[in-house]
Automatic annotation (TrEMBL):
GO terms for biological process: canonical Wnt signaling pathway. One of its GO terms (cellular component) is plasma membrane. NCBIfam families: Por_Secre_tail. It comes from Flavobacterium silvisoli. Residues 293-360 form the Secretion system C-terminal sorting domain. This is T9SS type A sorting domain-containing protein. GO terms for molecular function: Wnt receptor activity; Wnt-protein binding. Keywords: Signal. Coiled coil: none annotated.
Length: 362
């Protein structure tokens, strides 16, 4: 296997082919090109967009905590090619309508009703929108047809648009001040919202057609619709390789996690399947160096506790640039010269074992 640097997000990653042994389970079948998924924890409903039949575009839901889940159609009028779905904290279901001529973002209030009304929310300036994420009241959109990644901030009845980057994004996801996006031709990348770099960081290679992304804990899940596969990458600890989880799917698209099971919209097979994440042998991805850092977040000092002899300590900012630090001792770092924000710390032991994690400087 090709040797990779252990700093995820900061450098290019390679693919490690550890195929999971657990089998997928069919959750629902008989759908029509399922594409987007969104899970509502309040009602245990899994929402799914169906976009294959131009005469019957719709959004449905499945109640997951029942022995025989039933598909219930929820929205079926005034929708054109629904793809991505997102649920906001105030119980609005956002629907990305990826029509190249009438692309828009619509939404419906799904709180306390089984007959919500969908209304257009963003109707101008979008051409085949694909990716969507919600954060702090802002909408982050992969405006695929306009070759743009945008941040839209509501201002009364209008929106302030901030161009984050000119690039293709079939999906995107926000993690703090970092956004990850999938370019279906070149791979998965990351960049900063607040301190953007002119060149995005490529975090995976070898994935033919990355279509959808899911962030769950420290893991970034990636579906490859062309090869029918699902991968995951540990962004902060363990190996810097992408793990091949599932093969043999038919155009996998959006994913969600519920009860530590990965739900996948298998668009080409017109069904939703799930994969038990508990079946994975995570020991392959754990570092053999045990380290505790505290406090986290930290103000002026960061303490390091380990039973191993430390050979090197390095700190990197969110764009992968190594920053200068002052070692008070081998077990303590002076942080007073660092700006507030998210950092990565890499600790190497005398036996060359490596520990990597993140911390916040306040």
């Amino acid at each position: 296997m090709k040797k990779c640097n252990r700093l995820p997000v900061l450098i290019i990653m390679c693919i490690a082919f550890f195929t999971a042994t657990a089998q997928i389970t069919v959750v629902a079948s008989g759908l029509s090109g399922p594409y987007g998924l969104a899970f509502d924890q309040t009602t245990n409903r899994l929402y799914v967009s169906q976009s294959a039949d131009a005469l019957n575009y719709k959004v449905s839901y499945i109640i997951l905590n029942t022995t025989e889940p039933q598909i219930v159609d929820l929205l079926s009028t005034n929708i054109i090619k629904p793809t991505r779905l997102k649920i906001s904290n105030d119980s609005y279901l956002y629907v990305v309508e990826s029509d190249p001529n009438m692309g828009k973002i619509s939404r419906a209030n799904i709180s306390g009703t089984d007959t919500p009304q969908i209304t257009p929310y963003i109707t101008g300036g979008l051409v085949t929108p694909m990716g969507l994420d919600l954060k702090n009241g802002n909408l982050y959109i992969g405006d695929f047809g306009n070759y743009a990644i945008k941040k839209l901030t509501p201002q009364g009845s209008s929106f302030q648009t901030t161009l984050l980057r000119n690039d293709l994004a079939s999906d995107l996801i926000i993690d703090g001040n970092i956004y990850y996006y999938s370019n279906p031709y070149y791979g998965v990348f990351s960049n900063s919202i607040t301190n953007p770099s002119p060149v995005s960081t490529q975090i995976t290679t070898g994935i033919s057609n990355p279509s959808s992304l899911l962030l769950n804990g420290d893991w970034l899940f990636i579906s490859d619709s062309q090869n029918g596969s699902v991968y995951r990458v540990n962004l902060y600890t363990g190996s810097s390789s992408a793990q091949l989880l599932i093969t043999g799917l038919n155009q996998p698209q959006s994913m969600v996690v519920y009860n530590n099971e990965l739900y996948i919209a298998e668009s080409g097979a017109n069904r939703i399947v799930k994969f038990d994440l508990n079946s994975l042998n995570t020991k392959k991805f754990e570092s053999n160096l045990i380290v505790t850092i505290s406090p986290n977040p930290a103000n002026d000092k960061l303490n390091i506790q380990t039973e191993s002899d430390i050979k090197d300590i390095s700190v990197y900012d969110i764009l992968g640039k190594k920053v200068s630090i002052n070692l008070i001792s081998v077990n303590q770092i002076d942080l007073t010269r660092l700006l507030n924000g998210l950092y990565f710390i890499k600790i190497t032991a005398e036996n060359n074992a490596v520990f990597l994690t993140k911390f916040i400087k306040n």
